[in-house]
Design goal:
- With 258 residues, the protein is α/β, with parallel strands linked by helices.
- It has two domains: 176 residues, 3-Layer(aba) Sandwich (Rossmann fold); 58 residues, no CATH class.
- Helices cover 34% and strands 26% of the residues.
- The strands form two sheets. A six-stranded mixed sheet has the order 6-7-8-3-9-10, sandwiched between helices. A four-stranded antiparallel sheet has the order 2-1-4-5, covered by helices on one side.
- It starts with 5 loop residues before the first strand and ends in a 15-residue tail after the last helix.
- It binds adenosine-5'-triphosphate.
- Adenosine-5'-triphosphate binds next to strand 2 and helix 1.
């Protein structure tokens, strides 16, 4: 069997050397899969994703034990920009578009890191417009004047301009209308199925995420309490209780489903 594209091994992480956010989280993303990272507010999803791109030090955070390996390389020793060049690209929570740039200019910033030829950039832009035609229609609109859905599409499109192999997304559904969320997940699945793009997506919206994911991991209070095949997890009634804060004793559900 081939090695996973991303391996998170028993990762502990804390902020300011005192606030422990992750307690030994492990998960694997195989090449060509969509993996959903689920959990309620504060469960540790964003911390896990930031650790994956070695972004915790920028927030006075750190991985205190365990390790993360992307494509055979220890992420803890890598510069975040190098990880992007190697194909590990994040769409951070909250979209982070440049508000005073047009949607097209936002997309073009995604290609800056990899000294691409103009023809390659044009090709990538055309591909993004094919995936999100709405962005083409609105390409001259300032991001700051665009809807939340358009900004999320632009943030994803910008990430695609870096030609990722593993696309990491933090709560792409946040604050968006259900139809827009569906559209975005449909396009992510299409990229996965047609272009073989591997995806790790953190979501509080477990219903949508489990519908599109191949595998999932549920975090609760910084621990991975449940994991396995997304289809099997969809059948589990107790999943919902995580999202409504009723909680489920970690030990009672710690066995892997698959
Ligand atoms: P959300 O959906 O609210 O972002 P989450 O599952 O992504 O939730 P995290 O943001 O990873 O959760 O938070 C995990 C824990 O780490 C929480 O207790 C949170 O308060 C804490 N935390 C997150 N960021 C910081 C930070 N910059 N400094 C200190 N503590 C933090």
């Amino acid at each position: 069997m081939t090695a996973p594209l991303l391996r998170i091994e028993a990762v502990e992480a804390s902020y300011q050397r005192s606030i422990v956010a992750l307690h030994g989280v492990s998960l694997e993303v195989r090449a060509g899969e969509i993996h959903a990272l689920l959990g309620a507010n504060g469960a540790g999803k964003s911390t896990t994703l930031k650790a994956v791109s070695n972004l915790l030090p920028a927030e006075r955070g750190q991985v205190t034990s365990g390790r993360i390996v992307f494509d055979g390389q220890d992420v803890g020793r890598a510069n975040p920009a190098d990880l992007v060049r190697r194909g590990l690209v994040q769409v951070l929570e909250g979209r982070h578009c440049f508000r005073t740039l047009t949607l097209e200019e936002n997309l073009l910033t995604g290609g800056l890191g990899r000294s691409a030829r103009r023809s390659e950039v044009a090709e990538d832009l055309a591909r993004v417009y094919e995936i999100f035609p709405r962005l083409k229609d609105k390409r001259r609109t300032l991001a700051g004047l665009s809807s939340g859905g358009e900004q999320q599409m632009a943030a994803i499109g910008r990430a695609l301009m870096s030609r990722p192999r593993l696309l990491v997304l933090d709560e792409p559904s946040m604050g968006l209308a259900p139809l827009v969320v569906r559209d975005i997940f449909e396009q992510l699945r299409r990229l996965n199925r047609e272009a073989g793009l591997s995806i790790l997506v953190a979501e509080q919206n477990s219903t949508v995420a489990l519908q599109y994911a191949d595998h999932a991991t549920v975090l609760d209070a910084g621990m991975a309490v449940l994991g396995g095949d997304a289809q099997a997890l969809r059948q589990r009634a107790d999943i919902q209780s995580f999202y409504f804060g009723e909680g489920v004793a970690a030990g009672a559900v710690s066995e892997a489903v698959a």
